[in-house]
Design brief:
By secondary structure, the chain is mainly beta. It contains no helices and 40 strands. Strand 18 and strand 19 form a beta hairpin.
């Protein structure tokens, strides 16, 4: 194969001349019961061929040089990690394998995940944050253990949003917006006087936007001081979590049919406000070119021009649309309805591409992975309740049963290596093996736009 030269001092196995030396690697592939998996093929980059696990799941490879990436493959299985890169003698490399949808762990929290409205967010270090009706914000490690809890004065329905510096922002029904340090200590709290039910959004400059019920929309500086606040009069209170466009414009849904566009520097007068829906706006997302998608309890999804709020089209279902839309790479809009269906909607015409019927009412918002798989939950039934993985053509890939009459109303988040996290109505946080390796690279692949749930186009 000729000489392979070391390109970095970080690569081990080199002699002083800089020529890569041969090395060996070994390890094992185990299943969720920690038993070896036979017949897994491990492919080695750089033309070094492959190795196959034996009956005990163990494998080894000799004669490697330079930096080599190892990728395990076996039909109908996914692996954690998806690959490993080595540059020198290494043993005990372990891969975990199992069918997509397998439970990695389920953590019981001390309170229920109320209505699924508090959903997990993921920090830059992989920590998962979620609120609960016991009034606590939980910080959970990737192995399913609790790192710390932070106690507020009342139930939490808001989903946490995480700033660039790792600060976690969470609203509580006690009327406070809390800023929590990554170590679980309080940074500051802001008294908004009324219940906070919707989730905060974080602008590029660090300003936090959130609304109260009943009450106002607030803009809070990163140091916890009030930048500005406003009420909406006859348009009602903030009924959908605000979203932020690529130009910094804030879009807000209100309880009296209003959708409002706000300049962050000159909040009033509004850039525009419209009353296209005939009832409360309860879900929002942004598509390509900042097209505004708004779901209402009048059963319809509305697509609005971001320039003036004019109506591009509307799409009617047979139930409320509390499920926040997610957008695929081709612009397809996915959202669930109280009529039990997950819909795929054409972004140009607003017509139905397909629908998939779940077991019950959908409040959960879809999340899309980098293989185009859509994940969503639905409310519980006496026959058991499922969390679903649906392909881009509307076909079920698999489902996961969380138990009798237990709802999955939480909005799933897709973390590193494609692991899916979501909460259930009986107070569990689940981690499942996903199909892909992370979120879809689209304009809005999940609630809050990204794993930190900042609620802005990035």
């Amino acid at each position: 194969m000729g000489l392979i030269l070391c390109l970095s001092a970080a690569i081990t196995g080199c002699d002083p001349s800089g020529v890569a030396q041969e090395f060996s690697v070994s390890g094992s592939v185990i299943d969720l019961e920690e038993e070896g998996i036979e017949g897994v093929v491990l492919n080695f980059s750089g033309g070094f061929g492959s190795a196959t696990t034996g009956p005990d799941g163990e494998w080894n490879k000799t004669g490697l040089k330079g930096s080599v990436t190892i990728t395990p493959v076996k039909d109908d299985l996914v692996f954690l990690p998806g690959n490993v890169t080595v540059g020198g003698e290494t043993d005990n490399i372990e891969f975990l394998g199992g069918p997509a949808g397998s439970e990695l762990w389920a953590l019981e929290l001390s309170g229920t995940i109320h209505s699924g409205l508090s959903s997990p967010a993921i920090g830059s270090d992989g920590t998962i944050y979620i609120g609960s009706v016991d009034g606590k914000l939980y910080a959970v490690s990737q192995d399913g253990s609790i790192n710390w809890t932070f106690t507020t004065g009342d139930e939490i329905e808001s989903t946490p949003a995480i700033g660039d510096d790792g600060t976690i922002y969470i609203g509580s029904k006690d009327g406070y917006l809390y800023a929590v340090n990554p170590d679980g200590t309080e940074k500051w709290k802001f008294d908004a006087e009324y219940e906070i039910l919707v989730s905060p959004a974080i602008a590029e400059d660090g300003t936090i936007y959130f609304g109260t019920s009943p009450g106002n929309l607030y803009a809070i500086n990163p140091n916890g001081t009030n930048k500005w606040e406003m009420g909406f009069g006859t348009l009602g209170h903030v009924s959908a979590s605000p979203v932020i466009g690529s130009d910094g414009v804030i879009y807000v849904g209100t309880s009296n049919t209003g959708i409002i566009a706000i300049d962050p520097d000159t909040p009033y007068p509004f850039l525009w406000d419209v009353t296209h829906p005939s009832d409360s706006v309860v879900s929002l997302a942004l598509g390509p070119d900042d097209v505004v998608y708004a779901g209402s309890i009048d059963n319809s999804l509305y697509a609005l021009d971001p320039e003036d709020g004019s109506l591009n089209w509307s799409f009617e279902t047979d139930g409320w649309l509390r499920s926040n839309p997610a957008i695929g790479v081709d612009g397809t809009i996915y959202l669930g309805s109280y009529d039990t269906k997950l819909y795929a909607v054409n972004p140009t015409s607003g017509t139905e591409k397909w629908s998939f019927e779940t077991a019950n009412t959908i409040i959960s918002s879809p999340a899309i992975d980098d293989k185009g798989i859509i994940y969503i939950g639905s409310m519980g039934t006496i026959d058991g309740q499922h969390f679903y993985a649906i392909d881009a053509d509307g076909n079920e890939k698999w489902n996961f049963d969380v138990g009798l009459s237990i709802g999955v109303n939480s909005n799933p988040v897709i973390g590193e290596e494609g692991i899916i996290y979501f909460g259930s109505s009986n107070g569990y946080l689940f981690a499942l093996l996903g199909e892909g390796s992370g979120p879809e690279n689209s304009i809005w692949p999940m609630f809050g736009q990204n794993v930190r749930r900042t609620g802005r186009v990035e």
